[in-house]
Write a structure and sequence with these properties.
InterPro entries: 3-OHacyl-CoA_DH, 3-OHacyl-CoA_DH_CS, 3-OHacyl-CoA_DH_NAD-bd, 3HC_DH_C, 6-PGluconate_DH-like_C_sf, 6PGD_dom2, Mito_3-hydroxyacyl-CoA_DH, NAD(P)-bd_dom_sf. Its main location: mitochondrion. Its EC number is 1.1.1.35. Pathway: Lipid metabolism; fatty acid beta-oxidation. The chain has two domains: 204 residues, Rossmann fold (3-Layer(aba) Sandwich); 90 residues, N-(1-d-carboxylethyl)-l-norvaline Dehydrogenase, domain 2 (Orthogonal Bundle). Helix content is 46%, strand content 12%. It contains 14 helices and eight strands. Helix 10 packs across helix 12. The chain starts with 22 loop residues before the first helix and ends in a 24-residue tail after the last helix. It binds nicotinamide-adenine-dinucleotide (NAD). The site of nicotinamide-adenine-dinucleotide (NAD) has 23 residues, from helix 2 and helix 6.
């Protein structure tokens, strides 16, 4: 159950009073010279990124989306997560509520991309996985953001250089990928992706910022899937092929990888968690045009996966994928 959303979402940026910002927060922010970030896209990932930035790194955050409804959804995700965190940390309910309020006070909700960009040092994009939509957004941001602002995309599968092509050459020197993992508050890893133009000091700032967010950054060049997905997606497709050939059942493959390789989930459970549509989208994109992966045996589409997606079975989020779940988004298998 999501908590009730506070009715303070205004049409434009609604900055909370300056006294909400504790001095300690500014001191932490100064370590990486970032005082305010904009997170564009208040969905699953954007909400998580905004949360760890405001909570762990203690910077001011402008969370931007296209509508109040999306912003409220993002805010409710953050609120529920912070409440869980502070409830565990503090036995005193009033103290937990005060800490939650303190973090929430650093987050401003906005439907104005330009307005929030104008006052931010780092802009992290977490909107839909669509190259044209991302390019359109970054063009807007380039015109509105201050010259020193660093741009980052949280894309899972699109080449960072293709997205960065939308901005000026000067800005491309301040452009990188920041690939967070779902769920952001729990997952420790961030892949920091450099393109050819990314300046060393920009990269260093992003390393420092992600560390301040409580994450462990790793560095990777702008190659399809970066590190984690490049290994994970072909692994999941190899599991699909194993089942398609009739060599083993999905249940036995999942059990085998959990007990034999020590993985927390088997590949079919993992695909249900990630989303079958998302898994298919990433792989098919690489098969069609991924650098070094185009037309490759490694990325050949899977008829089994295609059929499930065509049937609207997307995994946990739709209530059924390889397995059936107790209800849409339920966390336990039937
Ligand atoms: N979900 C994951 O597991 C995961 C993991 C790592 C990276 N990613 C990447 O993160 C990005 C976001 O994924 P998500 O799962 O949070 O998606 P999501 O659908 O939950 O959220 C996307 C949000 O962006 C908003 N949006 C769309 N266009 C916008 C615009 N022009 N301006 C402002 N807001 C806009 C939408 O309204 C929505 O609220 C994608 O690029 C995805 O590939 C996702």
């Amino acid at each position: 159950m999501l908590p009730r959303v506070k009715p303070h979402v205004a049409a434009m940026a609604t900055r909370r009073p300056a006294q909400w910002m504790p001095a300690a927060a500014l001191a932490t922010a100064a370590n990486h010279n970032v005082k305010q970030i904009s997170v564009i896209g208040a969905g699953l990932m954007g909400a998580g990124i905004a949360q760890v930035a405001a909570h762990q790194a203690a910077v001011r955050v402008q969370l931007v989306d296209t509508s109040q409804a999306h912003l409220q959804k993002g805010e409710s995700i953050i609120l529920a997560s912070l409440k869980r965190i502070f409830k565990k940390k503090s036995a005193d309910a009033a103290d937990a509520a005060r800490q939650t309020d303190e973090v929430m006070a650093r987050i401003t909700l906005s439907t104005s991309t330009e307005q929030s960009a104008a006052s931010s040092d780092v802009l992290v994009e977490a909107i839909v996985e669509n190259l044209e939509a991302k390019r359109r957004l970054f063009r807007q941001l380039d015109a509105a953001a201050p010259a020193h602002a660093i741009f980052a995309s949280n894309t899972s599968s699109l080449p960072i250089a293709d997205i960065a092509a939308a901005v000026s050459a000067t800005r491309r020197a301040q452009f990188a990928g920041l690939h967070f993992f779902n769920p952001v508050p729990q997952m420790k890893l961030v892949e920091v992706i450099r393109i050819g133009e990314t300046q060393p000091q920009v990269f260093e700032t992003l390393l420092a910022l992600t560390k301040a967010m409580g994450k462990v950054p790793v560095s990777c060049k702008d190659t399809p899937g970066f590190i984690v997905n490049r290994l994970l997606v072909p692994y999941m497709f190899e599991a699909l092929r194993l089942v398609e050939r009739g060599d083993a059942t999905k249940e036995d493959v999942d059990t085998a990888m959990k007990l034999g390789a020590g993985y927390p989930m088997g590949p079919f459970e993992l695909m249900d968690y990630v989303g079958l549509d998302t898994t298919k989208f990433i792989n098919d994109g690489w098969y069609q045009s991924g650098k070094g992966l185009q037309g490759s045996k490694l990325t050949e589409p899977s008829p089994l996966l295609d059929q499930l997606v065509a049937d609207g079975k997307f995994g946990r989020k739709s209530g059924e994928g390889f397995y059936a779940y107790g209800g849409v988004g339920a966390s336990t298998k039937k």
